[in-house]
Hints:
Residues 156-216 form the GFO/IDH/MocA-like oxidoreductase domain. This protein is α/β, with parallel strands linked by helices.
Amino acid sequence: MLKAGVLGAGHLGKIHLRLLKQSEKYDLVGFYDADISNAKKVEAELGYKYFDSIEALIDAVDVVDIVTPTLSHYECAKMAISKGKHIFIEKPITNTVEEAEHIRELLAKNNLRGQVGHVERFNPAFLAVKNDIKSPMFIETHRLAEFNPRGTDVPVVLDLMIHDIDIILSIVKSKVKTISASGVAVISDTPDIANARLEFENGCVANLTASRISLKKMRKARFFQKDAYISVDFLTKKCEVVKMKDAPENPGDFDMVLQNAEGVKKQIYFDNPKVADNNSILDELETFADAINNNKMPIVTLHDGTEALRVATQIIECF
């Protein structure tokens, strides 16, 4: 078992602590949190061992799980890598692309593993249809949330939209050619609602919308490709695949058949992939343990996290 320690015991940090504790692939050693009163409370109420310094925690583990505010990711990661530790680092990977690239260099130089917490890659609805998504040419995503003061220290692009940016970059095997975007700060000092359009060199276009001032929650993505439409609801963990094929000469009474202006007939049929029941955060942590133990590439690499941050930064620069 890999000895693991968590930096940061806020809302998400406590979830990581609980899951690492129950995982059979990690031995949870303890945690560090800069807020001493919160740290003492977590230790007293939940029973996790509190270390009074980052250095002491890092020295005691094999894997450092960084769940601190984004502004501190870079320094925490540098410290962990300098002591020869593997790092799991929450999204966004760092505050700037330059910081992310430096972390990648340090990790490679020290022959260590790193993974970024883009948890939607492990969403069971996305996993159920991932292999059906082939060369999409138009993608539309909506990620809407009710207002919550937590996370408003960064633009909604880094808070919410970056999830969809990572998903799109993992699917579209082409470079981003142009980016246009707009954002509006309504309650916060940074944009609370944003829309971005990504155009890729292969012709694919992605339209992304994110808001943290909505009256209802929504986390949906729609993928349009030759002869297929695929939708993923990341919130309800449901998906839908609608495909088209050449219509049979003698369609059945209940077959859905469309005919275009040229007289070509296509049959529409629905595929309902089975969605497995999983805990996405536990899965991302445990697959990282597998990557370390088997000396393999993590599912969400630091390169992936860096590229998602790069696109997110370019979107923000459009505002």
